[in-house]
Design a protein that fits this description.
The complex is a heterodimer of chains A (about 220) and B (about 325). Chain A contains ten helices and no strands. With about 220 residues, chain A is mainly α. In chain A, helix 4 crosses helix 5 and helix 9 runs antiparallel to helix 10. Chain A is globular. Chain B is built from twelve helices and no strands. Chain B starts with 11 loop residues before the first helix and ends in a 26-residue tail after the last helix. In chain B, about 70% of the residues lie in helices and about 0% in strands. By secondary structure, chain B is mainly α. The chains are: A mainly alpha (about 220), B mainly alpha (about 325). Chains A and B meet through helix 3, helix 4, helix 5, helix 6 and helix 7 of A and helix 1, helix 5, helix 8, helix 9 and helix 10 of B.
Chain lengths: ~220, ~325
Amino acid sequence: MNVLLDHFSEFRDGFIGTVSITAVSTAIALVLGIVIAGFRVSPVPPLRWFGTAWVTLLRNTPLTLLFLVTTFVVPEILFPGMSAFVLGSIALGFYTSSFVCEAVRSGINTVPLGQAEAARSLGMTFSQTLRLIVLPQATRTVLPPLSSILIALTKNSAIAGAFSVTELFGWQKLMSEEGYDIVPIFLWVSLAYLVVTFFVSGVFRTLERRLEVAR
Amino acid sequence: MSASVLFDAPGPKAVVRNRLYAVLGTLAILGLLALTIVRLSNKGHLAPEMWDIFNYAGIRQNIADAILATLKVFGIAAVGSLVLGVLLAVARLSDHKPVRWLATGFIELFRSIPLLITIYAVWVGFLTDYSMWALAVGLSIYNGCVQAEVLRAGVNSVPRGQREAAYALGMSKTQVMTTVLLPQAVRAMLPTIISQLVVTLKDTSLGFIILYPELLQTARLIASNTQVNGMYPYVSTIVVVGAIYVAMCLALSGLATWIEKRGRRAKTGIGPAAPAGNAAVLGGDAGNANANTILLGGGDGGTGGGDGGAHGPGN
């Protein structure tokens, strides 16, 4: 019990760290995922190949390896001295973007054929069809898998703690190194993660209810 | 639905435009690649000496040992998670309320905590000197919970007639579960189970954090203990180890795809579920997504009882 009271400010920082790295990498993953899903169904073959390669590569790489890549390789390519938070968000966001891409793509496949055909017969271009007709309708079917992807993202953000991002796993590690008993630490950290994941699934449940239509 | 529905067969103008996009896209991708290579080689990461380290017998031996260590922990965790998964699934489907509640609580708790937190707690709390077992136990607990949900969905997808017929034959609850329901559930869920095993394989890399000398930890040790041209060969080891991981995972997912295709060909029994794709791979709510899986072949029990097995793949 004491461990939380003694180190509440670190715990709070860790919680805020988890929430913020989750939020930032969610944004990266959503934007990249939707763009790459667009690539994968586009009429331009090289973009389709790029999308496929992106998804295959990132889905089959352990996230820890991606963190290593962003820690040791990315600063060499871009500029040295990038903050661990930025690098961690990039790793998490890129990794998750491949899953988001697959969810969006299967969502696109569930939109009835007639919709795209009607859009085409009105003379819409590919990007108009996708942006105005298909993607808005795909949203409804994409939401449930997206919710579990983002919950997984929240859980995966723990790995960032091992790469010196301030977040909850970092707090767990710090506290156990300071000699506190692991069981209460584990319980408090689990509770904090439960709060975040419940929040995410709550948001998605609300969204699903909002977008629900009578069929 | 193929992509072609989203756009018309290109006319002359569209062909030109698409080619333009193709060229621009290719140039952009190649440009990024070139930038990467130039920046890396400017800093000396692509010098031949950096890559020459993989010709040393010692380093090769290290990598081989590390692959073995990874596969060993993966093997233990795979068996552990499947056994735990079966137990938890059966417990969650049990008729006894306390057992059901306990199993549900366990599954929901460990499924919603990050795997790393569990592994670290097991390591520090119980198995400080045995990082391999800490990793294997952590992986088994988390993946066991996910596999339990997958199996439960599989059991629920078995047609009611099967269970009713088995009870009508006078089988006990245990017999119904072990000889009728579970085999069909496993068959239906095999692709999903294997894609969860791919996740398990990827997650063995968390051993990096509890200092278990698996592939990633070894890579880091190699990179930080070898000095070439006054630099540490992080880039080359990461590329090599990454390629090994991707190859292992692709091989395992290839197996899942193969089994799924093979299962789809067979016309008897329950067809395998469509691969649960993203959700399953992420270890998210795969179970629920698959709860009402389709039945492809016969065996619905409705017509005459003995429709299910025995005939073999007729066509």
